[in-house]
Amino acid sequence: MFKRVLIANRGEIALRVIRACRELGVETVAVYSEADRGASYLELADFSICIGSARSSDSYLKVDRIISACEIGGVDAVHPGYGFLSENAHFADVCRSCNYEFIGPTAEAMSLLGDKNSARTIASNAGVACVPGSDGLIKSESDAVRFADKVGFPVLIKASAGGGGRGMRVANDKEQLATAINQAVQEAQNAFGNGAIYLEKYIELPRHVEVQVIADNFGNIVHLWERDCSMQRRHQKLIEESPAPNLTEETRKQMCAAAVKLVKAASYTNAGTVEFLVDADEKFYFIEMNARIQVEHPVTEVITGIDLIKTQIKVAAGEKLPFEQTDIKQKGHAIECRINAEDPDHNFRPCPGKIEKLIIPGGFGVRFDSYVFAGYTVSPAYDSMVGKLIVCQPTRDEAINSMRRCLRELVIEGIKTSTPLQQRILESPEFKTGKVDTHFIERKFMKKEEK
C-alpha cells in the first residue's frame, strides 16, 4: 500500500479521497490554489501545498506545479479525482515517468478511450453497439452532408476530445449543418485545444444510462451495475439514480456485459464508466467512456456497499479486486441530487457568494458529500457544485419521498441553489413513473428563451 498520496484536485472530491486514505492508513498531500486557501478540508490532509492563483490554468491544470508538489511532499502516488487533469493522458504518463503511481488507467488506455472516435472503433470491434456514426473524423462539410444524407437528419456533431456537452451541436437540416459544425469546432478548439469532430445519428428522446466498472492489474474486471443520468440540462447532470427505472432485467444484464467487454478490449484498469444511450425500444448504444471516477459514484457505493475510492487506491497499489462479479448485488434504490450554486429560474446563472447559513439533512439512508460550511464563500473560479445529496431506501418510491424530505430540510442561505428545481422534478408525475428522457428538464421546466 502507498505511504503518501497527493490529491490533484479540490473541493468535495479532495475531501472524499482524504477520508478514504485516512481509513487505509495512507497519508495525504492536498494541493490548493489561492482561491482555496483556508478551505476546511485542507486541515484534514497531513500536508498542504499552494500551487498557484485562482485560475485553474495557473494551478489545478498546471502539470509541472503538481509534479513539483509531489516531489516536495514526498508522495508515491497521485489521485486525480474528476475534472481538471483526471483524463489527461499526458499527466498520467508524466506522473508514472517520475515514479509517482497514477491512481487511474494507463496513459495508453486513457488516450484510446478519451478520444471518442477511437473509443467507438474499440467498441465496434468488441461487438458493442454504437450509435450510427461517421467513419472516422469529419474533414469537410461535404463529408458531413454525405453522412447526413445516408442516415437522415437530425444528426449530432461531437468533438472527438469533448466532454460535458462542449463541442456538441444538433443539426436538423443541411442549412443548419455548416453553422453547427463551425460552432462545434470552435468550441472544441477553445475548450480542449482539439477541434476534431465526428458525426452521429441523433437519437431522439433517449435515456442516458451508464455502467460503473473497475478492473485490476491481474485481468479481473467487474461491473457495479448501472446508473440512470437522464435528468440533465445542456448535457450537465442534475439527478442520478440506480437501479435505472423502467429497464428490463435482460437489458440491464446485456448492457453491463457490453461494458465489461469494452473494458477488456481496451486493456483498461482501475475505475471507469461506460456510457450508453437507450432508445424507446430499449436498444442501447455506446457513446463514450469516462476514464476516471465520476461525480455520481456515491450512487453506486450505497447500493453495492463497495467503497469505490478505496478500491481505486488498492488496485493502483497492486492489489487484486477483493470481490468477484457474483458478489456484487444491488440493494435498495439510490438517488443523488447535485447541489449547485446557480439560479435555475434565471437560466442557471452561477451564484457564487458567501453561505450565511447551512443546515444539512440527516436520517436513515441519507448522505451529504460536501466541503462547504456556514461562512464559506463559493468561488466563481470553479464548478458551481457545492455538494451531493444522496439517499438510499428499500424502494424507488421511498427513495423519492426521502429525497423530497431532505431537499426541504437542506438550508443553504446566502446563495441561490438548484434545489427548488430538483424538488419540482421529483414531484413531477413523469419522474415518479420513470417516463423521462435527456431533454425532459429542458422541455418541462426551462423557458424557451433559456434553452
Q: Let me know the CATH homologous superfamily of the largest domain.
A: ATP-grasp fold, B domain
Q: Number of folding domains?
A: 3
Poorly predicted residue ranges: none
Number of helices: 14
- Rg measurement, Å: 21 Å
Top-tier CATH class of the largest domain? Alpha Beta
Instruction: Report the major sheet.
Output: 8 strands, antiparallel
**Strands in their spatial order, largest beta sheet:** 13-12-9-10-11-14-21-19
Question: What structural category do the secondary elements indicate?
Answer: alpha+beta
Mean pLDDT: 94
What is the fold-level CATH name, i.e. the topology of the largest domain? Answer: D-amino Acid Aminotransferase, Chain A, domain 1
The CATH architecture category of the largest domain equals: 2-Layer Sandwich
Structural features, described:
- 33% of the residues lie in helices and 27% in strands.
- It has 451 residues and is of the alpha+beta class.
- It is globular and about 60 Å long.
- It has 3 domains: 100 residues, Rossmann fold (3-Layer(aba) Sandwich), CATH 3.40.50.20; 70 residues, ATP-grasp fold, A domain (Dna Ligase, domain 1, 2-Layer Sandwich); 244 residues, D-amino Acid Aminotransferase, Chain A, domain 1.
- Strands 13-12-9-10-11-14-21-19 form an 8-stranded antiparallel β-sheet, sandwiched between helices. A 5-stranded parallel β-sheet has the order 3-2-1-4-5, with helices on both faces.
- The chain has 14 helices and 22 strands.
